[in-house]
């Protein structure tokens, strides 16, 4: 009996992830990605400790491929091959980005990381529309309360939706950083770019939070903003005599700090609001069988 298409792409996902992890481990040990990122000043690069999130991402991706190989999702059996294809393509792009970036092809390296961002965006749309999330916040901007997901499995949420959510969320930040590095490489240094991207990052994550209620995405957003604030807080003291240096790093420190505070406060408010509001009241349940005693105009008493 021949292998099914889904089985083949699952095997390819394991191979693609293994290659990605191997090259990531090599560059992590050598520290050349960190050195390459420091060659071009960039105010949006978070502190070094922020990049430890890759360990979390790698762990979740390993969970994804192993779970899909041994105990695949039954609810998504007919469509999940598409997610595997997207994952394979993103792994190739991410690996290519690393190799180009560390060898000094900074400008050229933007193409594969941007491609990875687009591919992972498609992957996120897949998991967001197919797998029911665990929502702990009030959803203020969504009208899809009655949307029926293909999978309501908590195992699918933790093993499929969460890995791709945090992977794409961090890739959003990494792509923005790469874009600003590209701009700096082209000789353009303008605070307006940094203000725009920092503000857009906060706005985009707020919209996702109030529209989708994706907690893993919100966690990565906060992690990134805090990392940017801490790094700029430290860097502004490196050249105290350089007024422009201090002013620019201070501006980004303030923006990232305020953004993290506003975003974190909004998240807590939405959590408390959901708790205060309580469970959804039934629309077509037992409450509708209770006769109303309200007086209606035009009704005889």
Write a brief caption for the model.
The protein has 301 residues and is mainly α. 70% of the residues lie in helices and 0% in strands.
Which features would summarize this protein structure in a list?
9 helices; mainly alpha; 301 residues
Describe this structure in words.
With 301 residues, the chain is an all-alpha fold. It has one domain. It is 70% helix and 0% strand. The chain has helices at residues 5-30, 32-39, 53-70, 80-102, 106-130, 154-185, 191-212, 215-235, 243-277. Mean pLDDT is 88; it is low at 282-301.
Helix content: 55-70%
In total, how many domains does the architecture comprise?
A: 1
Strand content: under 5%
Mean pLDDT: 88
SSE inventory with pairings:
Layout lengths: L4 H26 L1 H8 L13 H18 L9 H23 L3 H25 L23 H32 L5 H22 L2 H21 L7 H35 L24
Helix pairs in contact: 1-3, 1-4, 3-6, 4-5, 5-6, 6-8, 7-8, 7-9, 8-9
């Amino acid at each position: 009996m021949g292998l099914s298409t889904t089985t083949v792409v699952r095997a390819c996902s394991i191979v693609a992830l293994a290659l990605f992890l191997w090259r990531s481990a090599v560059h992590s040990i050598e520290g050349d990605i960190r050195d390459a990122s420091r060659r071009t000043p960039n105010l949006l690069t978070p502190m070094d400790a922020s990049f430890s999130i890759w360990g979390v991402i790698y762990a979740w991706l390993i969970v994804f491929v192993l779970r899909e190989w041994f105990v695949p999702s039954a609810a998504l059996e007919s469509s999940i091959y598409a997610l595997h294809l997207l994952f394979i393509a993103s792994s190739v792009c991410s690996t290519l980005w690393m190799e180009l970036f560390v060898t000094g092809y900074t400008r050229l390296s933007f193409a594969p990381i941007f491609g990875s961002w687009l591919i992972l965006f498609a992957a996120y749309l897949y998991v967001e529309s197919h797998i029911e999330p665990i929502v702990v916040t009030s959803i203020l901007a969504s009208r899809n309360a009655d949307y029926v997901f293909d999978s309501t499995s908590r195992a699918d949420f933790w093993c499929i939706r969460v890995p791709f959510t945090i992977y794409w969320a961090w890739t959003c930040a990494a792509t923005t950083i790469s874009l600003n590095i590209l701009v700096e490489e082209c000789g353009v240094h303008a605070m307006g770019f940094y203000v725009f991207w920092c503000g857009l990052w906060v706005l985009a994550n707020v919209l996702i939070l109030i529209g989708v209620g994706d907690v893993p995405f919100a966690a990565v957003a906060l992690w990134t903003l805090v990392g940017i604030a801490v790094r700029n807080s430290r860097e502004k003291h490196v050249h105290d005599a350089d007024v422009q240096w201090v002013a620019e790093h201070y501006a980004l420190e303030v923006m990232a700090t305020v953004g993290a505070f506003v975003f974190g406060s909004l998240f807590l408010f939405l959590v408390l609001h959901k708790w205060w509001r309580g469970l959804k009241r039934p629309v077509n349940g037992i409450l509708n069988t209770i006769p109303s005693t309200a007086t209606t105009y035009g009704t005889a008493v």
